[in-house]
Amino acid sequence: MPQIKLLNIVGARPQIIKASAISRAIRKHFSKNIAEILVHTGQHYDKEMSDVFFEELEIHKPDFNLGVGSARHGRQTSMMITGLEEVLLKEKPDCVLLYGDTNSTLAGALASSKLHFPIIHIEAGLRSFNKTMPEELNRIMSDHSSTLLFAPTNAAFKNLMSEGFRPENSPPYTIDNPKIYLTGDIMYDNTLFFAGLAEKKKASFLEHLSLQRDNYILVTIHRDTNTDDTVRLKEILVTLKKLAEENDIILVMPLHPRTIISLKTKLPVLYDVLSTCKHIKIIPPVSFLEMILLEKNCRMIVTDSGGVQKESHFFKKPCIVLRKETEWVELVNNGTAKLVDADPVRISEEFLKLMDLHSVLEYPGFYGDGKTAEFILKEILFMFEKV
Ligand code: UD1
Ligand code: UDP
């Protein structure tokens, strides 16, 4: 039986992590049916934003690295499209797999759909209903260029229906007759798979950072709205510093390079103050296994990351979300994630409430059974009638 050729496109840190769930499921269940080609656009390129995940999560090295790097949106996306077009024409895959909502996703959607390669979109249907977010435009355009769309939550599935996608469509599926599925979340697959491994492989990581279980708060900040706008960045960090000192708790901040660059160049005085504060540990981005340990053992999470919001739920930790809105609405409806924007009053109120409430909150299973990657691959094979 001939294999199908599946071209995976990654570029940003969370996509490399997501692709590991798919690669693992292919290796375990479908290596006879699916040949995987991996393309890295090079959107993220620092060792700790890219290589570390390939090494740690046992993903094979990319077959192609376009080396695009950082640039303004238009230039970055167009360089990706140019590179991807070459790869697609050379490899002629049966389908293209895209993850999430980054510029690498958008470039993959445009390059593949114009060349008529069917697109499979993982994390389809998520919406913030805020089109000033680059990710919102990327999601909408990628969803509307796709043939199979895998929505990770009920809310995402409903969003697709309200944009005209019809669950009753029958095969053959095409860009004009797409199929939508409600699945779980492949990041949940990853968390289940790697949590035990993290404990084993990184046993001394918390100790190395002088952290005690349940006695620190994990903070990540990287959204353009929070890093490019220094008024917001300053308000967030000054408020968090004050709260840490008043409550005598440590804040651990593995900061994205974007945030470090903003702090060092635009807020150097604040950066010095934070770096010398005994309640704050600013550290470089950590590996996924290290991140899992930080999440699993913290008291609470403060973040503007999509992935980290969900992982707070996987590890049953309350989460303060430094955004006006979220795509993961079930977390907010559940009361375990609180939207605070960059408002010092709301950050302080929710911080204090969640510190007290953390042991009584409940965390229902919103994100599937940990076998979402397997489900997705089976459906892809059904589309090509290879199962
Ligand atoms: C991108 C995604 C965002 C995702 C995030 C995951 C878009 C539009 N945004 O945001 O949705 O949540 O990845 O982390 O695609 N930089 C480095 N080293 C690197 C990578 C980036 O120094 O390896 C710095 C550069 O100064 C760069 C800046 O970070 O200009 C922003 O990087 P970019 O990839 O454009 O966007 P992210 O903020 O990472
Ligand atoms: N992550 C990581 N190291 C870090 C910060 C995040 O491994 O220092 C992981 C995190 O556990 C999650 C993913 O990266 O799985 C989220 O990526 P990010 O916050 O960059 O992007 P988003 O999910 O917001 O697109």
Outline of the structure:
The chain is an alpha/beta fold and 387 residues long. Helix content is 48%, strand content 15%.
Question: What small ligands are held by the chains?
Answer: uridine-diphosphate-N-acetylglucosamine, uridine-5'-diphosphate
How would you describe the shape? globular
Whole-number tally of structural domains:
2
- Our estimate of the beta-strand percent is 5-15%
The secondary structure category is alpha/beta
Per DSSP E runs of 2 or more residues, the count of β-strands stands at 13
**Helix fraction bin:** 40-55%
Q: Tell me, rounded to a whole number, the average pLDDT.
A: 97
CATH superfamily of the largest domain: Glycogen Phosphorylase B
CATH top level assignment of the largest domain? Alpha Beta
Radius of gyration of CA atoms, rounded to a whole number = 21 Å
CATH topology annotation of the largest domain: Rossmann fold
Number of helices: 17
Measure the end-to-end span: 10 Å
Run of helices and strands: EHEHEHEHEHEHEHHEHHEHHEHEHEHEHH
The order of strands across the largest sheet is: 3-2-1-4-5-6-7
Biggest sheet layout: 7 strands, parallel
| Low-confidence regions | none
CATH architecture descriptor name of the largest domain: 3-Layer(aba) Sandwich
